[in-house]
Every structure is written in structure tokens, then in C-alpha cells.
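Hi R.,

Here's the chain you asked about this morning:
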Amino acid sequence: QVEAIAEDLPVDAVKTGMLASAAIIEVVARQVRKHGFEKLVVDPVMIASSGDSLLDPSAVDSLVEQLFPLASLITPNLREAEVLSGETIADLKGLERAARKIRRRGTAAVLIKGGHFDDPRRSVDYLFDGAEAVRFSAPRHATPHTHGSGCTLAAAICAFLARGLDLHHSVERAKHYVSQAIAASFSVGAGRGPLGHFHGWWNVMNESTDDAACSSTGGQDSDAK
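And the predicted structure, written out as C-alpha cells:
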């Protein structure tokens, strides 16, 4: 699949998700090197929000050794950052220590996603690129429907990098997008629902529908007169 896309289309940025095993990680790393993908966002996807392990423990070393050196950015959540750094993250200072330790493992930059912090008012993500540390904060929305928020953030960062934004502004824009998507999240069946990824389109559609309704109402009033 990678070969088919890389041979047919220009690839401006790449994001990896759950890779599951060392064998898969090695194939992905080989393809990244072969095709010279320069903007690579690695979302480790090692531990779910529930605490369940999503990556074979034997594959963690492969992830660090094979993909971290190729990555422009890695985006662990709090639990993943604790595993990768050996730090217990209980506050922002712990977040900073963990980010610095993870970056020393070979990646260009690390963004620790702070969505699992207990702060009921703000969600704070921490970016460290070796030269500068930046916190990105957004209001926390009162909804349980946040399924896929971490994956969405990494994918949005990748999309903005592909559009030519630098890393700082890509993270900033992605954080804003995800915050709005969480505000527009909804319930689908049992469990936590997904984000409203298309909230921008929905707003446009709603406005168009409202405008059409107003025009229709206006026309009826005019006819009545």
C-alpha cells in the first residue's frame, strides 16, 4: 500500500498509528527510509485511555530504535509518556521532565498529550523540540464523547505540516481543531462517542439550511400579501 501511494502521488507528510508488532514497525521504518518521507508524525499508540495495552511489549524497543530517529514528532499520551520516560507524571513539571527524557531517546520533538490530566477546566499539551518548550492549552469540554481524540490530534498535526506550516503552528492549529471537534462530539450507541470531525462543514450546512428556511418563509409572507 505504501509503495502504491508513494509511486503515484507526492507525499508531503506521514502519520503512523497503531503498529502492533516489531515486524510491522520494521516494515514501516524501511519504507520511510526508502521513500525519504521527511515529515513523519509517530503516534505511539501503546496504551489506550482505558489503560489497556495496545502494543506488544517486545515491540516498544523497535518503535524507539526504528521509528523515533526518523520522526519529526512523536505524540504520546500521559501513560505512554510515563512508560517511555520512566517518569511518574503528576503535574506540569513531571510533564516537562518526561518530554526531555523522551526526546533524548532519539526523536526530533515530542508532544505529550495532556487530555488525561485531572484538571477539570483546561487540557494542556506540552511540546519540546530540544530548543523550546511550549504549552498548548484549550478549555476542557464537559462530554464523555472523546473517542479518538489523541489519534485525531496527531493526524491534524500531520495535515497542517503537509500544508507547509511549521511544527509550532501545526500543533497550535491542530489543538484548536480538536478542541472544536470535541465540543461537537456526539453519542453513537453504547460507550464513548466520536468527535465531530466535520464540525466546520456542519456549521456551514446549518447556516445554509437556516438561510434557505428564511428565504422560504420570506417568500410565503410575500405571497400572502
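Residues 199-224 form the longest helix (26 residues).

Let me know if you need anything else.
M.
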